[in-house]
Amino acid sequence: MVKVDPSHPGQLDESTPRTGLWQVVDGFVGQLDAETARAHGVVPLMAQLQRSRGEEVSAELLHEERAARMTNAIAPSVLARARAAYDGPMLLLKGPEVSALYPGQARMLADLDLLASDAQGAWDALRAAGFVQPERLKGVSSEFFHLDPLELPGIPLQIELHKTFGWPSGLHPPRNEALFEAAVPASVGVPGVLTPARAHHTVLLAGHAWNERPLERLRDLIDIAVMAEPIDRRELAAIAAEWGWDRLWRTTRRVLDWLFGDGEKPTAVRLWARHLPDLRVPTRTELQLRRYLAPFWAAPAATALYEDAYQAKLSLTRSRSPAQ
User: Fold this and answer.
1) Domains of the chain (ranges plus CATH)?
2) What is the pLDDT of residues 58-85, one digit of tens each?
3) DSSP label at 12?
4) Which of 73, 83, 152, 320 has the most Cβ atoms closer than 10 angstroms to its Cβ?
5) For residue 190, how many C-alpha atoms fall within 13 Å in the half-sphere facing its CB?
């Protein structure tokens, strides 16, 4: 049975006066140049802020802002086509669900992440319905957590059909059944397209960001903070503990409290996320340091040591590979 989440987001109008979290975000975005804003994934927010101040918005920022608006506008129709092709349970993560929480949906969509009850069956159904594999994108391993991306011809918004949602290396993903059981209707308004319950979604966003780039981009942290805003902290901590993600969530929560509130600077920021206080792009040395230290802030020490040994072995193997 589909449950209704009373805290499910509605769209936030671009003209709404900024308060709370968004007032803090505007302060951060206002300090960035275009290149750094791009690295942190907040170009649409920068264009929006400049316009609100009566400043001229550069052509490159306008281009990315329009691309963000376009992908958000076409997402519901792409999802409707996918829903019509596959009638099994379908759960939407990130993307439009997070954009709906941004003023004026000022957030870029790179793709649509869909968890299907039968990922391969859904992939085959979408292919039969006219979705294609983009030649510009490489296929993924059969062991990867999602299948090869698909898109509708001429529409630059790909779908990734997931077997499970991404999770940090060394930990375990939550059970799909639990996510589907608690799911609520997605904000895109496509009948039959669900999204994780907001508390689940918050912790999933933290895990997804940690899997790809721990504590690196401002936009990832904004996503988690805005999704977490109305949720009781104890509920989020309980979900993270149930999934075995408690260390990861504690680290993320401390960073959010420091960045958007009045919390103390976390040890992770002092040691290996040292680019965050200045909101700059991390250096190669900092990224390498993060590669070996971040696991200790996400997983038990024994697991983190194993991950470090694996990464060291992987680096050695790559360094010995013949030049391509």
Assistant:
1) 20-320 (3.30.460.40)
2) 998 999 999 999 999 999 999 999 999 9
3) B
4) 152
5) 22
